[in-house]
Amino acid sequence: MNSRQRRGVILLVLSALCAMGAFAGVLSVIRDVNSKVGPEVAAYRLKDDIAPYKELSADQFEKVEMPERWLSSTAVTDLSQVRGKIAVTQLEKGSLLQTDMIVDRPALEAGQQEIAIMIDASTGVAGKINPGSRVNIYATFKAEDTKSVDQSKVIVENARVIDVGKLTALEPGQSTADRTRTATQAVPITFALDTADAQRVAFAESFAEHVRLALVAGGSDTPVAPGDRTYTLDEDK
What we know:
By secondary structure, this protein is α+β, with helices and mostly antiparallel strands. The protein has two helices and eleven strands; from the N terminus they run H-E-E-E-E-E-E-E-E-E-H-E-E. It folds into two domains: 40-104, Antifreeze-like/N-acetylneuraminic acid synthase C-terminal domain (Type Iii Antifreeze Protein Isoform Hplc 12), CATH 3.90.1210.10; 113-236, no CATH class.
């Protein structure tokens, strides 16, 4: 082997060593990045905005992969966690779902049943009454004849709201008992009531001129005084 050949062999060896060194450097960088990023886990991002107190479903979220160390301890990594939950605040599109964004949907207690009625939006329920709220339910009745008078009654007190539906446009003439109303929009409100109170609400929805809700202050369980459960205009004369 002459000197030129020896130089060629040496250059090849040096090139191979340099390539190996570069490859080792790349592996080192990759290992370093992996050690800093760590393994990836599933997280869930909102496809669209979700209004407060609305029940959640799996199709409202899209799965994304993210490094585990970048996720907060409250990140939802399993969509089964949204089953039976509602949004506690306004959820924004593109946000990662966190456990502190959701709460359990209010559940029925022993002896209770769900009953839903349409409430005129003009009474101010929209945005003010939410699942978990406590309300007094009032109904107003027209006098049946000239010998009686119009009256307002508290038909259920401290009723627990378990769901608030979407604002719904009413068709002309569509209302409780098909009576004449001026309301054009209503909200379905679902209550958890015992049998007797559910019957009172069903009766009022069928026969009352209006059914209205009055929000009860949080933590207040003061009953309505017997003398205040029924009102007629004559009482103010």
